[in-house]
Write a structure and sequence with these properties.
Length: 171
């Protein structure tokens, strides 16, 4: 993608997307399934929008910036790509048909809500930030663990900047 202006919908199933310019959900609804996202440009999910990712590998240099809702299902990996969220953001890791997971190997900066759940409570959900890489938490951040029947895993070193009010993990 050389031009980040993609009006309408952008749905990719299989293959790869080489984002050499910034792309955003501001003008384009995006869904990625069984896809690799690479390139120099960041992918930005704007406030009030949802970016859906199922079985996706992100190797883009500037990763994903989220101000809206990121909905992950299946197995998703950020290889040396950052995942950055704002206070208004919501990350949902859930799948109605299988376990869902997100692995981040280059840091997760989170200021919003991370929701480890399952659409029908029967399958597990996990977030794994590689050991030694801190999950930096903004002024108020919350991890919600929803569902009583399957395992929910949060594997991460928590780090909170000066002035942070709280880190909450709820079940």
């Amino acid at each position: 993608l050389a031009n980040g202006n993609l009006p309408g919908a952008f749905n990719v199933t299989g293959g790869s997307v080489n984002a050499n310019a910034a792309i955003s959900t501001a003008t384009t609804a995006m869904t990625f399934q069984q896809t690799t996202i690479s390139g120099l440009g960041p992918v930005t999910n704007v406030a009030t929008h949802t970016l859906t990712m199922r079985n996706v590998t992100v190797t883009a240099m500037f990763g994903i910036s989220n101000d809206g809702t990121l909905n992950f299902s299946g197995t998703n990996t950020f290889n040396n790509s950052p995942l950055i969220t704002s206070a208004s953001s919501h990350i949902i890791i859930a799948d109605p048909a299988a376990a869902a997971s997100v692995t981040v190997t280059n840091g997760l900066t989170n200021s919003g809500i991370i929701d480890l759940s399952s659409a029908n409570a029967a399958f597990g959900a996990s977030l794994n930030v590689t050991p030694g890489i801190a999950m930096l938490v903004g002024r108020v951040s919350k991890v919600e663990v929803v569902g009583a029947y399957a395992r929910r895993r949060l594997i991460v070193k928590l780090s909170s900047p000066p002035g942070a009010k709280q880190i909450r993990v709820e079940r």
